[in-house]
Amino acid sequence: MGMETDGYRNESLCAGCGGDCCRIYENGRLKKRLTIQAWSDMFHSFRVEYDVAPLFHADVVHIRENAHLIEILREKNIDPYACEYMASTGCTISWDKRPSQCVAFRCEAFRSTEIKGEANVQVL
Prior knowledge:
Radius of gyration: 15 Å
Shape: globular
Number of strands: 4
Largest sheet: 2 strands, antiparallel
Number of helices: 6
Structural class: mainly alpha
Distance between the termini: 8 Å
Strand order of the largest sheet: 1-4
Oligomer: single chain
Strand content: 5-15%
Order of helices and strands: EHHHHEEHHE
Helix content: 25-40%
């Protein structure tokens, strides 16, 4: 398997969490000295291969003059601080096309399920 598809998967844990690790536009998670557009482009460097459209454009939503768009997204049950591909039902990018940092990341809750030996963790 390639770097893009290697990773860890626990769909029930991620669904229960709601994707906190996907909140890439939240304060404190942006790389210093990068604009939101630069961060999005770096994070999603292979977006042309996703075969799905983003739910919003972070560089437009997070302009001070467009603050009203944040509320519109929330009304549609879309988290404006999450990745632009994160729907209320989960990631809209198929597993095999997700960024490598998404499939390789394991949050604290995920790591604790591994320690407990829960069977619903897939190592891909």
